[in-house]
Amino acid sequence: MVLAQLGGSISHALQQMSNATIIDEKVLSDCLNEISRALLQADVQYKMVHDMQSNIKRIVNFDDLAAGHNKLGIIQQVDFIQQAIFNELCKMLDPGKPSFTPKKGKTSVIMFVGLQGSGKTTTCTQYAYYHQRKGWKPALVCVDTFRAFCQLKQNATKAKIPFYGRYTESDPVKIVAEGVERFKKENCDLIIVDTSGRHKQEAALFEEMRQVSEATKPDLVIFVMDGSIGQAAFDQAQAFKQSVAVGAVIVTKMDGHAKGGGALSAVAATKSPVIFIGTGEHMDEFEVFDVKPFVSHLLGMGDWFGFTPRHMYEQFQNILKMGCIDQVRSMLPGFSAKLRPNDHEKESQAKIKRYITMMDSMTDAELDSTSTKLINEARIRQIAWASGQHVRDVMDMFEEYERLANIWSKMKGLKIPKKGEMSALNWASSSLNLAYTT
Ligand SMILES: Nc1nc2c(ncn2[C@@H]2O[C@H](COP(=O)(O)OP(=O)(O)OP(=O)(O)O)[C@@H](O)[C@H]2O)c(=O)[nH]1
């Protein structure tokens, strides 16, 4: 089952359950069985599906369910069960510890491993290009002496990323040692090693990987997995983990016919987080992986978990474009009093502008993350300094974000507008509707 269909099947199961007159053990079991079938067809490993079922059954209290057998009660119970499924799937995708994060300006060696055809070479360039656009100084080293050499060289040349590889040398360890050495001397901060995926025998592949790892002492080993490989995902990921210290996963080919379940299996097998997904062959078809929005899509819950600072930024810009905030704010109960102090138009405008300036000093990762975990005290101070504002103002801005994100999280099914998709007035009236429901 492809990813796009999985959400539909799960929504269908939940819909069936909400049509029931009472939610008892049988209704819940039927629903969970349908969801389990959908997950299995999407290549989630059997044991994970089984564990999820047991965990959900354990937390659902049937006495409470029986008590809520009017329509509202049933809707609440369905919400509760949907939330429980959401939490279980998030848990599956969260290994509990973040992967090593390279630091700009400090040399890190990142080694990519994966089977031939998994999309490893494509991913190496995408990863390099992603960082290059953010001001890093990446470099690519190709261990493979055959086809990947040409492919990686071509990609690297196109993206103007330094490249090292040797056609004539057959010893991969020698090539990689030379390449890493050279780029360390050139002060590259991200040295990306593309290992070979082609070997007649698995044992030879893993032995070469171990030797390359030994020679380069990578800061992070990334396992690249084809998102459409099916139930083999778990075993494949585990085999790599047993040979080298895999610390992160990138799932490729998540466009088109990809099955989402493989990502869950790879996390379980490697106990490492998925950090990016590949959504096409082109350099920029590469996305940071964020667990909650991914699971939210998987469950057909739409974008309601995905309210990011960037959404707030874009909506503030829309509001400023509309001119008169006093007019807009009368329709914006979603906005806090802080944004409309004493009803003064100018002050409100100035405040929104200040928030926008502060957000201009945030990184893309911070703007696109639904979590403010990235923002610690030091970051708040940096943002304040970079935007010429007070620390207190930056904290105010994040409080405002948390408040709006909280409002949007309650608006299940409502799509968060993309840039330019929704006018501030539409957004304002959505907030207005919400204000009466909260
Ligand atoms: N649709 C799609 N195709 C992809 C994606 N990533 C890679 N590919 C294609 O998949 C094929 C294999 O990708 P490679 O990057 O060559 O894979 P590899 O693991 O390096 O394989 P070898 O070089 O043979 O070891 C190529 O045709 C890529 O263009 C993706 O995210 N989506």
Total helical elements: 19
Bound molecules: guanosine-5'-triphosphate
Largest sheet: 8 strands, mixed
Helix/strand/pairing category: alpha/beta
CATH architectural grouping of the largest domain? 3-Layer(aba) Sandwich
* H/E element order: HHHHHEHEHEHEHEHEHEEHHHHHHHH
> What is the helical fraction, as a range of percent?
55-70%
Physical arrangement of strands within the biggest beta sheet: 3-2-4-1-5-6-7-8
What is the first-to-last residue Cα distance? 37 Å
Mean pLDDT across all amino acids:
78
Low-confidence stretches: 330-337, 412-438
Question: Any idea what the CATH superfamily of the largest domain is called?
Answer: P-loop containing nucleotide triphosphate hydrolases
Q: Tell me how many strands there are.
A: 8
- The coarse silhouette is flat
The CATH class of the largest domain: Alpha Beta
**Whole-number radius of gyration?**
25 Å
Percentage of residues in strands: 5-15%
EC number: 3.6.5.4
InterPro entries: AAA+_ATPase, P-loop_NTPase, Signal_recog_part_SRP54_M_sf, Signal_recog_particl_SRP54_hlx, Signal_recog_particle_SRP54_M, SRP/SRP_N, SRP54, SRP54_GTPase_dom
Keywords: Cytoplasm, GTP-binding, Hydrolase, Nucleotide-binding, Ribonucleoprotein, RNA-binding, Signal recognition particle
Protein name: signal-recognition-particle GTPase
